[in-house]
Every structure is written in C-alpha cells, then in structure tokens.
Automatic annotation (TrEMBL):
Annotated segments matching region Disordered: 1-92
Compartments reported by the entry: Cell membrane
Function: Involved in lipopolysaccharide (LPS) biosynthesis. Catalyzes the transfer of 3-deoxy-D-manno-octulosonate (Kdo) residue(s) from CMP-Kdo to lipid IV(A), the tetraacyldisaccharide-1,4'-bisphosphate precursor of lipid A.
Domain of life: Bacteria
Domain 3-deoxy-D-manno-octulosonic-acid transferase N-terminal residue range list: 170-349
SUPFAM superfamilies per UniProt: UDP-Glycosyltransferase/glycogen phosphorylase
Similarity section: Belongs to the glycosyltransferase group 1 family.
Protein name: 3-deoxy-D-manno-octulosonic acid transferase
Record lineage: Bacteria, Pseudomonadati, Pseudomonadota, Gammaproteobacteria, Pseudomonadales
InterPro entries, per the entry: Glycos_transf_N, Glycos_transf_N_sf, Kdotransferase
Site, Transition state stabilizer: residue positions: 269, 347
Pathway assigned to this chain's UniProt record: Bacterial outer membrane biogenesis; LPS core biosynthesis
Organism expressing this protein natively: Pseudomonas amygdali pv. tabaci (Pseudomonas syringae pv. tabaci)
C-alpha cells in the first residue's frame, strides 16, 4: 500500500528560501490539498471526474479548510508570473505513476502519513514571506552558543552511556556530520529518534517505498538501539539508507542536509530541533511533523522559550497530530492553524505478524480470556500502578470478569 502526503501544507520556509529565488521571498506560502482514500485514488485513475456516493472525513476536512481559508485556493497572476521559471524545491520530483509533480511549477504529489492511508495532491501556490523567522535569529544564536558550550557535557553523557552500552562509542563522527556513509541524494528524509518511533514509522516508510520506487529514503535516529531496529526492519530494502542524525548545531545540520539533499523531511512525533528546521528552511526543504504529540508539560516548556519555538513551528510545512487537544497546543505555540490536522496515531497502521497474533490467541486461551474483557497496563512508571489498580477496581463494578 502506498500513500502520498496528506494535505494541510501552507509552507513557511524562511527568508533563506529567497536564496533560491528572490522573487519568492515576499510571497505568502499557501497550499491547497485534496485527500482521498486508497480506493478512491484507484478509481480516480479510471475516471478522473468520478466521485463516490459517500463523502469521507478527508473530504469534509478539505471542504472545511477551503471554506475557512479561501485564500488558499487562489493565486494572483503576478504570483504566477513570478513563479514561472523559478527553482522550485521539489522540481523534478516524480511519483510512482511517472507524473512530474511540478511540471507546471506549482504542483507536487508527495507523501502521506497516518490514520487511514491518505492520498493527497499538494499544491504550493507560492512561497512565503520570510519575515516571520527574522524575529528569532538572536534567540537561535543564543541557543546555538549554549549548545556549543555544552558539548563537553554531551561528550560526558556519551561516555557514561557507553559504559552500559558500548555501541555509543561507535560512529561518533556521524553525530557531528563527519564520516557520513555514502548516500543517494534527492530522496525523502525520515527521522525517528529511537526504537519506538522507528517501529511506528515502519508502515509509513514501507508505503513511501511503494509509492515512490525511484526515490531513496534516508532514515535517521539518535540511539544505537534505534539504529539496530532500523537495520533489522529494512535489511532487505536497498533504497533505505541510514545514519545518526547530527546534533542540533547549524554547521552539522547543514553538512548533513547538503550530504543527503532531501526533497522532504518527515520528523516523527515531537523531535523538534531549531537549527535543523532552520537549515531545512534555508534550503527550501519542507518539514513535516508526523504522528505529532505534545503533552501539557512539554507545551509549557516550549512556551517558556516562545521566541525560539514560535518561529520554528511557523517554518514547518505540516503537522499531523494525534489528538485535537494536542493540535490546539501546537496552534497556541505558533503553528499556523491551516497547517495543523488531527490524523490519529500512526501506530494503528502497524502490520502485526501473523505468528504474533497466533501467540496472542494462545495466551488468551491460557488466561481463559477469550470471552472476557482484557486491558493491559504496560510500561508503567513509579506511582502509576496504584492508579491502575484503583481504576481496575472501579471497572470490576460494571465488568466483574474484566482481566488486568
């Protein structure tokens, strides 16, 4: 199953985007998206104008977006003239069908993320005004300075971790964008910080491989366990290339991006790094936050550094968020509302190994739980077990045969 990037993009790529074409720098980034599910995508190839009788959630979301943001559905003749002949960031980006996504200079079909696999047509109507990011260069400079000053602590942390996990001693150069493996350029970059994110990203990555058979996909992480998991998941896929993501230093991030030259960046969950996102903006690389989540505590932390976080979030092209509560937190922190959509958790798209399902069925039989409700409290932390037991006692009043 393949899929394309869901809609909602309204690009804000920073003033550095003007380095590709100065005519773009004073325009507002707007995007129109069309999302259809997989069955209707196939039907579209048979009849470009055919529409199913039923209207899905994606259509309602699209219609609502267009009603609320009519400016995203139009482009002025002046903007069209300015864009013609310009260096689009996705120029020459082809889909699996062989279509040139930007043959007309403004339309690219790229990637989809989660929920029910969505297919989308991304239309970049214009690049955006880079003034917004100019509000935070000093904050980012201060952040970068503090990061450099903290490098001895980073080295100490690596050394301490290496005492328990020797793999942390290996490939240290990659963390500074030095000694990166040879890679094909011009593909898609996916960042999954560790094991859990790598597993969650797997169905999306496999769909991308099917949707874009001519493109390499670079998967980065930050931990040795995540690295091993990525290698195990895609051992038989030659188009998957992997390395550690360098630390969030502008020169390291820039060197990595110049080495890989991705056409699109997809970051899993909430691994937000100001310098990486800024360096992507300078190169005209849209960045998507997939399976995004943001706890109340994390939101308060970002709010304390609003002058750094707000421009960073405004630069990002799209947020595919797990819940509406979290989506509102992203909006409150500075993400543009039209770029935020609730898509659910990508973990529901995981393909479960049939052997694992068989083992689970045997376990339920052993527990005598084939006909009784079962719930699992997994990965609990100190102090949470008491709350779980209390909840289970309450549950037993209405479901006396419930199993914890």
């Amino acid at each position: 199953m393949g899929f394309s990037m869901p809609g909602g993009f309204r690009e804000q790529l920073d003033d550095g985007y003007a380095s590709h074409n100065h005519a773009h720098a004073q325009q507002r980034g707007q995007v129109e998206f069309l999302a259809v599910d997989e069955e209707r995508r196939n039907a579209h190839h048979d009849n470009a104008h055919a529409r199913p009788d039923g209207v899905g959630d994606a259509d309602r979301d699209r219609a609502h977006h267009q009603n609320q943001h009519p400016e995203c559905n139009r482009i002025t003749s002046d903007q069209q003239q300015q864009r013609q002949g310009s260096a689009e960031p996705f120029h020459g980006f082809h889909g699996s069908s062989g279509d040139d996504f930007c043959a007309d200079g403004d339309s690219q079909q790229i990637i989809s993320v989660h929920g029910a696999f969505l297919f989308v047509r991304l239309r970049i109507l214009a690049t955006c005004d880079g003034g917004l990011i100019n509000s935070a260069p000093m904050n980012r400079t201060l952040y970068t300075l503090l990061f450099h000053l903290g490098l001895p602590l980073v080295a100490l942390r690596l050394w301490l971790r290496a005492r328990k996990a020797p793999a942390y001693r290996q490939r240290i150069g990659e963390r500074f964008a030095s000694g990166l493996p040879a890679m094909q350029r011009g593909g898609i970059w996916v960042h999954a910080v560790s094991v859990g994110e790598s597993i969650a990203a797997a169905p999306m990555i496999r769909a991308l491989l099917l949707q874009y058979p001519q493109l390499p996909i670079t998967v980065t992480c930050m931990t040795p366990t995540g690295s091993e998991r990525i290698k195990a998941l895609f051992a038989s896929e030659p188009r998957i290339q992997h390395c550690y993501l360098p630390y969030d230093l502008p020169w390291a991030a820039g060197r990595f991006l110049d080495h890989v030259q991705p056409r699109l960046g997809i970051i899993m969950e909430t691994e937000l790094w100001p310098n990486h996102i800024h360096q992507c903006a300078l190169r005209g690389i849209p960045v998507v936050l997939a399976n995004a989540r943001l706890s109340e505590r994390s939101a308060r932390g970002y709010a304390r550094f609003a002058k750094l976080a707000r421009p960073m979030l405004a630069q990002m092209a799209w947020f595919a968020v797990q819940t509406e509560v979290e989506a509102q937190r992203f909006r409150d922190l500075g993400a543009r509302p039209e770029c935020v959509a609730v898509t659910g958790s990508i973990k529901f798209d995981l393909s479960i190994d049939p052997q694992l399902l068989e083992r689970a069925a045997h376990l339920r039989e052993q527990w005598q739980a084939t006909q009784r409700p079962v719930w699992i409290a997994a990965s609990t932390h100190a102090g949470e077990d008491e709350s779980v037991l209390s909840a289970h006692r309450t549950l037993l009043t209405s479901h006396p045969d419930a199993l914890l």
